Amino acid sequence: MIEALLEALQLIVFSPSIWMVIILSAIYGIFLGAIPGLTATMAVALFVPITYWMDPVPALAGIATMTACAIFAGDIPTTLLRIPGTPASAAYVDDAYAFTRKGQSEKPLGMALTGSVMGGLFGAVILILLGGQLARVASMFSVAEYFWLYLLGLSSAVVVARGPVLKSLLGLLIGLFLALVGLSAVHTEARFTFGLPQLYQGISFIPAMIGLFGLSEVLRNVMNIRKDRSIPDPAADTREETGAGGWLKRNIWRPFVSVFRSPVKLISGRKGDFLRSGLIGSVTGMLPGAGADMGSWISLAASKRSSKHPEEYGKGSLEGIADATTANSSALAGTWIPALVFGIPGDSITAIVIGVLLMKNLNPGPEIFASQPVLVYSIYLSFIIANLALLVVGYVAIKTGRFVIKIPQKILLPVILLFCIIGSFAIQGSYFDVGIMLGMGLLGFVLERRKIPLGPVVLGIILGGPLEERFIQTVTGSEGILWPFFNRPIAALLGVGFLLLWGWTIWRNRKDKSEATDEDVSMQS
After folding, report:
1. Does residue 330 register a pLDDT over 80?
2. Mean pLDDT, rounded, for 338-349
3. Where on the phi/psi map is residue 344: left (φ > 0), alpha (ψ -120 to 50), or beta?
4. Which residue ranges does UniProt annotate as crossing the membrane (predicted)?
5. How far apart are CA 248 and CA 282, in angstroms?
6. 399 partner at 20 to 30 Å CA-CA among 5, 165, 296, 515?
7. 421: region left, alpha or beta (phi > 0 left; psi from -120 to 50 alpha)
């Protein structure tokens, strides 16, 4: 074990070629992740042909690095343009964009970068220490446990979303309805396709998300283009510093402090919340089909429930951004646990990883830990180095990306629309996806005008299909309807947790209404 670790350390740390792969992968991941519609999965998929001529260690190190960087880079358009770069970013898009409208875009971006790096390192430690043990827990989950897990994920969107619970629930139902479009995963029957073969695979998620958030924001700004909608520019530092020391303070130290001071202070004062978010991300990441998306939503819901300022969530909460980004980055390492231990992909990226391993004649499974210990330890170290590289590359991206908000809206809005069209078309090279983006943009614009939050709509589209599939699988061939959902200890625990969550939500909603009524009565009297 020690010999394998030392060999992996020497292979990773003292190899210029691997460092070159990591640096180039970090830049590549930041670049593709910052473009709306180009996801981390696409970045890895485009990288696969190159891995054919690479050794396994640098190939896997490159994949780990570009994934970590692309996930954070998705927060750049999320913050600056209100276009979620990743599905996980949709959980806190309103919080991040609220700061940009106040001319404080570096605050959420610095928080996202700090949370991503800290969460990524936490996930790497969990992968190193508890990979095998956590994988055994994941193997205990049946379809009933996944059903409750998906319901908890959907419920988190309603709990987190700002505004009345009924409007959030309506948004969730709209998302679940859109998830029904296409061939049923269980019965293979076409539903709501209107004879269009392009809809047999359902509504493409990335174009739908780009339309809901990106195009709807363009439409909302076009409606108010004649008003003074300029985003305030942060006040420049006018203090004069002379000499070499003054230049370093003005151009290096102060910009660095402006990005990381608030995030580090916030996380250091919320160690328990950071630990909770990291664990949520790691656990959901190791569950096949859950991953960073669900981890982000569940962590944000838990963060709001425990926060002293829940009213800030959805309107500009650094706490929510910190917990959500910590969870979605810690989940990245967690997704490798079932891939390495069982050969079961935790998400689409680790499915590609398994393909790369098989291409190198390496079979993922329990035997890989005994037959290829150097490779396993190299993967562990790659996650640590990838997040350290993200710290540097992400900081440069923040400092360069902030110039976007200085572009006049009459120029910026057409550029955003162009990105929306290109991002939608690039997924499958389909003009039909562009049409979906346009339609979902109109839907998002109407829903926002009616103050119906878009977050629940997105999560409904993501989890609606898996939820239906797990429900049908659970009730098929079982006696009774409710018993199969509670006849296992973990399923019963998750089911009770779901019921308690909704019971608490209904009670809180009624309490808020009664307090508001009492205030109205007292004011009238």
Report:
1. yes
2. 67
3. beta
4. 21-50, 56-74, 109-131, 137-161, 168-187, 199-219, 336-359, 379-398, 410-432, 490-507
5. 39
6. 296
7. alpha
> Taking Cα atoms as reference points, which of 390, 372, 457, 377 lies closest to residue 65?
390
Q: How far apart are CA 373 and CA 264, in angstroms?
A: 35
Q: Place 174 in a pLDDT band, splitting at 50, 70 and 90.
A: very high
Residue 37 confidence class, pLDDT cut points 50, 70, 90: low
pLDDT tens-digit readout, 447-501 = 888 888 877 887 788 778 888 888 888 887 666 667 788 888 888 888 898 888 8
Q: What pTM value is reported for the model?
A: 0.69
Each residue's pLDDT tens digit, 238-294: 455 555 556 566 656 667 677 778 788 888 888 888 999 988 888 887 765 556 677
Query: Residue 394 CB: number of other CB atoms within 10 A?
Result: 28
**DSSP states of 42-90 as a string?**
HHHHHHHHHHTTS-HHHHHHHHHHHHHHHHHHTHHHHHHTS--SSGGGG
State the DSSP H helix or E strand holding residue 305, giving kind and residue range, or none if neither: helix 291-306
Residue 87 · residue 460 · CB < 8 Å: no
191 φ, ψ (degrees, to nearest 5) = -135, 130
- Pair 456, 175: CB distance under 8 Å: yes
- Whether the CB-CB separation of 208 and 202 falls below 8 Å is answered with no
CB-neighbour burial class of residue 101 (10 A; exposed 0-12, middle 13-18, buried 19+): middle
* CA separation for the pair 439, 308 (Å, rounded): 39
Distance CA 13, CA 212 (A): 44
* C-beta atoms surrounding 333 within 10 Å: 33
CB 327 within 8 A of CB 337: no
